[in-house]
Design goal:
Layout lengths: L1 E6 L2 E6 L2 E4 L6 H6 L3 H9 L3 E2 L14 E6 L3 H10 L6 H9 L4 E6 L4 E2 L4 E2 L8 E2 L2 E7 L5 E9 L1 E2 H6 L4 H5 L5 E9 L9 E8 L2 E9 L7 H8 L9 E4 L17 E6 L3 E7 L3
Parallel strand pairs: 5-16, 7-13, 8-18
Antiparallel strand pairs: 1-2, 1-13, 2-3, 3-4, 5-6, 9-12, 10-11, 10-16, 11-13, 14-15, 14-17, 17-18
Helix pairs in contact: 3-4
Length: 277
């Protein structure tokens, strides 16, 4: 397992607790284009110069698109049905949860992705906004899952609930996503007992927290990548958020200044504040 951190000065690799700067320039696009990303980054660690642990981080992506999957956990199915019941969309989500074909949607281009420590946003025309903590797959140009990171799929639940056709507006806007703090390149994905946790702080106090095991996801993770690459190409690879099983109660909405902390032990903690709408 090798962790890759993106900084203003280039990539920093973490192998066996040592932080290394590759001797030759290495980019995220090169990693995602590689047929064997693990071999590429392992080779880059050879002869790399030791450096201090990186401070300020960028999102661990180059020109990759970010996509997302929905209704992959039972809790998200229930929440989506509840928020859209007045619009007659409840049965749509029930059917998606049981169907072979998953819900997949475009989430963000790189300029819409907030870096670790930076601000995510809530829409100015929405009154009910939540973060969605998600294990996020790194997929190379050939459609192979080679690693993972953490993602925050910011969502406007009132807009989506008004009409399912408004999903793009509820999901896609400036700083509607965050990724990080690093990209983990590994031979295997996190096991089913791996916990995804979230805590939302307001004025230094926790106002919501939750956790769920990766094993609670209904669909095999690799199958989501397979569906995404059907009749679709990604020359520089892509990221795919895999859905959430942690949904705040209906009475909760984010406020400007809130701090969102998403944690998976193998990756670390993705921290973002909520900026003004």
């Amino acid at each position: 397992m090798i962790r890759i951190y993106s900084t203003d000065d280039g990539l920093v690799l973490e192998q066996a607790g040592r932080f290394l700067r590759p001797a030759k320039p290495l980019t995220m696009d090169q990693i995602f284009q590689s047929a064997d990303p693990m071999a590429l980054v392992t080779t880059a660690c050879g002869g790399a110069a030791p450096v201090a642990a990186p401070g300020a981080l960028r999102s661990p992506l180059g020109t990759q698109e970010v996509w997302a999957a929905g209704v992959t956990y039972y809790r998200s199915r229930t929440a989506r049905m509840e928020e859209s019941k007045d619009a007659g969309g409840g049965t749509f989500y029930d059917k998606v949860y049981e169907a072979d074909r998953p819900e997949l949607f475009f989430k963000a281009t790189p300029h819409r992705v907030a870096a670790p420590g930076a601000a995510v946003r809530i829409r100015s025309d929405s009154k009910w906004n939540v973060p969605e903590p998600e294990l996020t797959l790194a997929i190379n140009a050939a459609g192979r899952v080679f690693g993972y990171t953490l993602g925050n799929d910011m969502s406007s639940r009132d807009i989506e609930g008004e009409n399912p056709l408004y999903l793009p507006q509820a999901k896609v806007y400036d700083q509607s996503a965050a990724l990080g703090p690093c990209l983990v390149v590994a031979e295997a994905l996190p096991g089913p007992d791996t916990q995804i946790a979230i805590a939302i702080l307001r004025g230094g106090q926790v106002v919501f927290s939750g956790e769920i095991a990766v094993g609670q996801i209904k669909r095999p993770l690799a199958s989501l990548a397979d569906w995404l690459f059907r009749d679709n190409t990604f020359p520089n690879g892509c990221y795919l958020m895999t859905g959430t099983g942690i949904v705040p109660p209906d009475g909760f909405t984010l406020q400007a200044g809130d701090e969102i902390r998403i944690t998976v032990d193998l990756v670390g903690t993705l921290v973002n504040t909520v900026g003004a709408s």
